[in-house]
Amino acid sequence: MEGSKGVVLLNCFVSPFGNRVRIALTKKGVEHEVTAENMAQKSALLLASNPIHGKVPVLLVAGKPICESQVILEFIDEAFSTTGEQLLPTDPYARAQARFWVAYVDAKIPACAPKIWQSPKGAPAVEEGKKEMLVALKTLEAELGEKPYFAGESLGYADVALVTFAPWFLTYERLAGFSIAEECPVLTAWAARCADENECVAKSLPDPEAVFQFVGGMRKHFGLE
Amino acid sequence: MEGSKGVVLLNCFVSPFGNRVRIALTKKGVEHEVTAENMAQKSALLLASNPIHGKVPVLLVAGKPICESQVILEFIDEAFSTTGEQLLPTDPYARAQARFWVAYVDAKIPACAPKIWQSPKGAPAVEEGKKEMLVALKTLEAELGEKPYFAGESLGYADVALVTFAPWFLTYERLAGFSIAEECPVLTAWAARCADENECVAKSLPDPEAVFQFVGGMRKHFGLE
């Protein structure tokens, strides 16, 4: 297996889940390769590495696969702990708070976002998805409050989990006809701050226009446009 | 607040999620009180402690709330680590495997189980829920294989996460007309082993007949029977 001695990430460049892993590896200074997966034609390596879900991201460490982005991020924080940078704080209660908000992001955003981008334009599901997304984003905005980052002064676990959805905001806005910047100005400023102040974020996120083009291609493929 | 100096669990006796916390606290020898919540009339304490979801379990530690069972179990493992017993192994890769299977349980079982017990008898959703549940249980059974417990020789994180659904099996079987013992003999033997060999499990699980009665009461309340 190629790269069996190192760290290899199987990813798709638009994946919010895969891009969390890119941020974490970069933040912690872990040397790694990224292998681009075509989700319409999954590689034998992906299917062998994640037989249960067949999804990206998969992190291969010395050839051993780890699946699911939350699981991978916890692994990275534990296995590569000598670089000084940590995603999770040390205090157990603060760790619980970070995990709670990551679980919130994963319970809410992946449930409403596809209603927007996997539905025909103007379908009732699009409006439903928009409403649910605004509830979730405003809840997250209220939790952020006046803090620069979710856990305080620096980029942490919850920031990494949420910020990878920011490149998709443009797509949600165009397809559902609303403005996240107008509805959630604090969260919008936070997303910009994450990229401006953290090279690991800036380097790991796709161009929002490229996401929109990618989604447009998928929508044409599935007869939605 | 009552018990503000100690450890208090807000729970409902049938909750698979809350009962995970009971097992974990008992396994680690953490002194605690359990407060029974009536989910049809949630207490002010529950709503104040978990304003985002309004659900059990909530663990109050010196008055500070922790929500979501996975988050609580990780917290218990980290915060009460002096008793010798741990839910998660120490090796990061083994920890990742345990977390992967807990995430699998939580992605699959809570998605199919309500189709069985929240639908009218004979509805197509019941059959759909049964089929999905058997796929999930057989996948878990294959992962267990010939090991006594998911992580090897002793009760761990994935065991605790799954075994709290075992008292519900009788209800699923009666409502959907199938036998989990026949379909999944290895998993059935594992569930018995968890209770037989671990007092923390035996003491924390409700009687399956009591679960069936409880569910029957809810079904009547919602006009399903």
From TrEMBL, chains A, B:
Gene Ontology BP terms = glutathione metabolic process
The terms describing its cellular component in GO are: cytoplasm
Query: What is the enzyme's class at the highest EC level?
Result: transferase
Its UniProt entry gives the catalysed reaction(s) as: RX + glutathione = an S-substituted glutathione + a halide anion + H(+)
- Which residue numbers delimit the GST C-terminal domain? 91-214
GO molecular function terms here?
A: glutathione transferase activity
Where does the GST N-terminal domain lie? Answer: 5-84
Question: What does the UniProt keyword field contain?
Answer: Transferase
Task: List membrane-spanning regions.
Answer: none
PROSITE patterns per the record? Answer: GST_CTER (PS50405), GST_NTER (PS50404)
Question: Known SUPFAM superfamilies for this protein?
Answer: GST C-terminal domain-like, Thioredoxin-like
State the EC number(s).
Answer: 2.5.1.18
Entry similarity comment: Belongs to the GST superfamily.
According to UniProt, the name of this protein is glutathione transferase
The scientific name of the source species is Lolium multiflorum
